[in-house]
Design goal:
The structure is a single chain. The chain is of the alpha+beta class and 456 residues long. The strands form 5 sheets. The protein has an 8-stranded mixed sheet. A hairpin with a 7-residue loop joins strand 14 and strand 15. The chain is elongated and about 110 Å long. The termini are far apart.
Length: 456
C-alpha cells in the first residue's frame, strides 16, 4: 500500500496512478479523512497538554488549602478527559477508515512504464525462437482435441467431478505435468540459487491483504466455509490463488537482516481462481481453468537492487522456455494492464500454434501468458509489514518484493502438445523433460468405458 504521508505529499502523482491504471477511488475523500484525522490528533495533543497542566495544579491548590479552586480544577480535569476521549474515539474511527481506504489505492507505476489503457498498448520488447522453429504438421490439432484423442486430458469427467473449468490429466498427460514441475524446480534451484518452499494451500485474510489480493480481488477467491464478502477476519481461510501469497507472507510483520538478503524462494503449488474460464473461446481446453499448477519465484531485496533483480527474474522465467525450445515473446505491460499492485511488470507469452486467433498472419497460432514478472517495490512490504535493517544501529526500512511464475504449467502443456506435435498425432517430448517422463514421445492410451466403444 501507499503510505499516508506519500499520498498526502504527492496527491497528483497518486491521481495519475488512479487514472492510468483505471482505478476508480475518490482520492479527495481520502485526503479529507487524513486532514480531519490530523486535526483531531492535534486537538487531542492540545487537550492532553491542558489536562496535564490542570492536573498538576490540583495538588498544589490542595497544599495551599484552596479547596474551592482545587474542586474546580478537578471538575475541569474531568471535562478535559471526556473531551479527549471523544476526540480520540473519533480519531480512531477515522484512522481505521483511512487504513481501509488506503488499501484501495493502486501502486504508482514506475516512470518508465508505458502509459496505456489496455493490452493493446503493451510493448513487445523481445521475441525468441522463431527464426529456427521446428517444422509443424500441415494442420496442427488444437491441444483440447489432441488431448482427448490421446486420452491424456479428460474435460468431461473433470466437469462431472468438480464443475466447469476443471480437468483430469491422465497417463502421459499427468506425467507431463509432474515432469514440468520437477524440471522447473530443479532448474531454478541448481542454476538460479533458489531455496525450495512447500507452502500451506489455505491462507488467511491477512495474507491475502498483504500481497494485494484483498480487498480488490475478493470475488475471484475460493473461500473455505464462508461467503465472499468483506466481513472476513484473520481466522478465515482461502485457497491460494498463487504461491506468491503464502511465500511473501512468510515474513509478514518481521524485520529481516541485511545479511539475509537477497532472499530467493521458489514454491510449487496448485492454484485456485474463480475468474479463470470466463474469457470466451479460452474456456475450451486448459488455457483458463479454475485449478492449475505453477512454480512461483518470490524475491526479497534491498530497494536499490530491485530493478536489477527484476531483469534477473525475467531471465530466470524465460530460461524455462528456452530450455524447452518453445518460442516466446516478452511484453512490457502498460499502466492500464499491469495490475493493481505492480510498479513495473513484464509478461512472458509462449507461442501455441494450434489455433489461429489474434497473433497475425506472420506467425499464426496464439500467445499464451505463462509468467508475469513483477516489481512491487515496497507496496506489498508496507501492507504486510516486512522490513529490513541495513545496519544494527539503523532504523528498519521497508523491503522490496518481486515475483515471477517460473512458470505456469497448463499453458506450457498446451504449447508442447501443439508445437511438438507430429503428423501421426504423437508428440515429441522436449529433451530436458525426457529423463523425468521416461520416454521421448507421447503416444497416448486407449480410452476406457462404454463411451469409448464407438471410437474404437
Amino acid at each position: 500500500m501507499l503510505s499516508r504521508q506519500f499520498v498526502r505529499q504527492n496527491p497528483e502523482e497518486v491521481r495519475r496512478a488512479l487514472d492510468t491504471k483505471g482505478v476508480d477511488v475518490d482520492l479527495d475523500h481520502i485526503l479529507d479523512i487524513d486532514e480531519e484525522w490530523r486535526e483531531l490528533k492535534a486537538e487531542g495533543d492540545n487537550l492532553r497538554h491542558q489536562r496535564n497542566e490542570v492536573s498538576s495544579k490540583i495538588g498544589e491548590l490542595k497544599r495551599e488549602g484552596d479547596e474551592e479552586e482545587a474542586e474546580e480544577a478537578i471538575e475541569r480535569s474531568q471535562e478535559l478527559k471526556e473531551e479527549l476521549e471523544a476526540v480520540e474515539e473519533r480519531a480512531d474511527e477515522l484512522e481505521a477508515e483511512l487504513e481501509r481506504a488506503l488499501l484501495k489505492l493502486p501502486n504508482v507505476p514506475h516512470p518508465d512504464a508505458p502509459v496505456g489503457g489496455d493490452e493493446s498498448d503493451n510493448v513487445e520488447v523481445d521475441r525468441w525462437g522463431f527464426d529456427d522453429r521446428r517444422d509443424l504438421p500441415k494442420a496442427v490439432i488444437p491441444h483440447y482435441d489432441l488431448g482427448e484423442e490421446l486420452d491424456i486430458l479428460d474435460f468431461e469427467r473433470g466437469a462431472k467431478v468438480s464443475g466447469g473449468g476443471f480437468y483430469f490429466a491422465k497417463g502421459e498427460g499427468a506425467r507431463l505435468e509432474h515432469a514440468l514441475v520437477q524440471f522447473m524446480l530443479d532448474l531454478h534451484r541448481d542454476e538460479h540459487d533458489y531455496t525450495d518452499v512447500f507452502p500451506p494451500l489455505p491462507v488467511n485474510s491477512a495474507s491475502m491483504r498483504g500481497t494485494g489480493q484483498f480487498p480488490k480481488f475478493i470475488e475471484d477467491a475460493y473461500r473455505l466455509g464462508g461467503s465472499n464478502d468483506e466481513d472476513y477476519d484473520d481466522d478465515d481461510l482461502w485457497l491460494l490463488p498463487t504461491a506468491e501469497v503464502p511465500v511473501t507472507n512468510m515474513y509478514r510483520g518481521e524485520i529481516l537482516l541485511d545479511d539475509d538478503l537477497p532472499i530467493k524462494h521458489q514454491a510449487y503449488s496448485p492454484n485456485f481462481r474463480r475468474e479463470a474460464g470466463e474469457h470466451g473461446t479460452e474456456t475450451r481446453g486448459i488455457v483458463r481453468v479454475h485449478q492449475f499448477n505453477k512454480v512461483e519465484m518470490v524475491n526479497f531485496v534491498r530497494p536499490e537492487h530491485s530493478y536489477d533483480r527484476l531483469d534477473g527474474l525475467l531471465d530466470e522465467a524465460t530460461a524455462v522456455l528456452e530450455a524447452l525450445g518453445l518460442p516466446y515473446r516478452v511484453l512490457e505491460m502498460c499502466t492500464g494492464d499491469m495490475g493493481f499492485t505492480q510498479a513495473k511488470k513484464y509478461d512472458v507469452e509462449v507461442w501455441a500454434p494450434g489455433d489461429d486467433m489474434e497473433t497475425g498472419p506472420e506467425v499464426g497460432g496464439r500467445w499464451l501468458e505463462v509468467s508475469s514478472v513483477s516489481n512491487f517495490e515496497e507496496f506489498q512490504a508496507r501492507r504486510a509489514g516486512i522490513q529490513y535493517r541495513p545496519e544494527q544501529h539503523e532504523s528498519a526500512e521497508y523491503i522490496h518484493t518481486l515475483n515471477a511464475s517460473g512458470v505456469a504449467v497448463p499453458r506450457v502443456v498446451v504449447a508442447i502438445l501443439e508445437y511438438y506435435q507430429n503428423e501421426d498425432g504423437t508428440v515429441d517430448v522436449p529433451e530436458p523433460l525426457q529423463p523425468y517422463m521416461g520416454t521421448d514421445v507421447i503416444e497416448g492410451q486407449e480410452p476406457v468405458g462404454e463411451s469409448a466403444v464407438g471410437d474404437q
